[in-house]
Amino acid sequence: MTDPVNVDPRVIDAIVQSQHATMDPQTVLAEARGKAYQAIAQSAAIAVQDAADALRGVTSLATAATGAALSQYLATGDPRFLEVLPQAREMVDGAIEDFSAVGTAAARLMTEFPAG
User: Which of 4, 40, 75, 76 is the most exposed place for a label (fewest CB within 10 A)?
Assistant: First the structure.
């Protein structure tokens, strides 16, 4: 039976080498930079997804408003219902611009942020 107080020097050496490999300041710094980059990338992706959801919502709203306005125009012949059409288009155009701006900002952020 081996003495529990005496540890094989190879085991101690392996533990010391593992500590040096994982706790070396350069290793810790590189890992921290990598984690920061991943966090920024995830945040940028979520921002783009949110912008896409907003664009989808505005498009749905504009489509519904256009359909309702055309239905009322066809039923009544009143041209004031046609005033909704350019407004609905402006809503969609604004949402497209917002989506584009968010996507451009996210892409720029990812190219400017150091990867590690």
Answer: 4
